[in-house]
Write a structure and sequence with these properties.
Number of strands: 0
Number of helices: 9
Structural class: mainly alpha
Bound molecules: protoporphyrin IX containing FE
Shape: globular
Helix content: over 70%
Order of helices and strands: HHHHHHHHH
Length: 213
């Protein structure tokens, strides 16, 4: 009796912490999406500026794909929707994957045409490939009806989607403390914004599995 009460208290505590983590993630994500996207939705040279305007036909589908993916992603992890409305989960999952495909291919083209430096461009090109591969694996797993692998690859995919926000959060903190020149910081962050969170995700996913074995 005592043991089952403390077990359910632990489960309740873990659920609460998870909700707090999700709320924090969504609040930071919403802030950066609202701060950086809206004015690109008005398609003119003044809003895009001289750096992005010549590539605006690629940037627009890129940011629309990214916007859909970043907004839809969290709903895919919501177990109540998944269990009670599987059709909604399936349709929004397809929209998520199409958004990643559009955003990822356009992101790759943006990386190839970026002017910052080679480390930055290659980091973002690799980020685009990681985005397409992790999401592609989630799709492949669900086609094979492998639900465990599907969930894991969706977690990795969303961690990569969120690199857009991770980059900006860390960049703002570093530039606030005047750490590193812009081009150096951006070059490092183009790689670190997805590689480090993916490594941490792997430690959590594999660690959980190890602790159960
Ligand atoms: C996760 C994979 C992503 C990749 C590989 C990627 C790649 C890129 C690249 C290469 C650029 C142009 C950089 C330059 O030319 O210097 C860019 C800019 C941009 N991307 Fe992404 N991106 C990703 C995710 C996202 C997401 C999820 C969003 C939206 C929520 C987004 C919105 C934007 C915006 C608004 C810009 C232009 C303005 C800015 O830099 O703030 N991207 N992206």
């Amino acid at each position: 009796m005592g043991t089952s009460t403390s077990t359910s208290q632990l489960a309740g505590g873990a659920r609460k912490s998870l909700v707090i983590v999700w709320v924090a993630i969504l609040a930071v994500g919403a802030y950066f999406v609202i701060a950086s996207i809206p004015y690109y939705l008005v398609w003119n040279a003044a809003n895009y500026g001289p750096y992005y305007w010549p590539r605006s036909a690629i940037l627009l589908p890129h940011l629309l794909g990214g916007l859909f993916a970043i907004v839809i992603g969290p709903f895919q992890f919501w177990s109540r929707i998944r269990n009670n409305h599987p059709k909604v989960h399936r349709i929004s999952g397809r929209v998520y994957l199409i958004s990643v495909a559009v955003g990822g291919v356009a992101g790759l083209l943006m990386a190839f045409t970026s002017d910052v430096n080679f480390v930055y461009a290659s980091g973002l090109a690799s980020l685009a490939i990681a985005w397409l591969l992790t999401s592609g694996m989630a799709f492949f797993a669900i086609r094979r009806r492998n639900f465990v692998q599907h969930k894991r690859w969706m977690i990795r995919s969303y961690v990569v989607t969120f690199a857009f926000v991770t980059f900006r959060v860390v960049d703002d903190v570093l530039s606030y403390y005047e750490i590193g020149e812009d081009a150096v910081r951006w070059g490092i962050l183009a790689w670190a914004c997805w590689a480090v969170p993916l490594l941490l995700t792997e430690i959590v996913l594999q660690g959980r599995q190890l602790s159960r074995s």
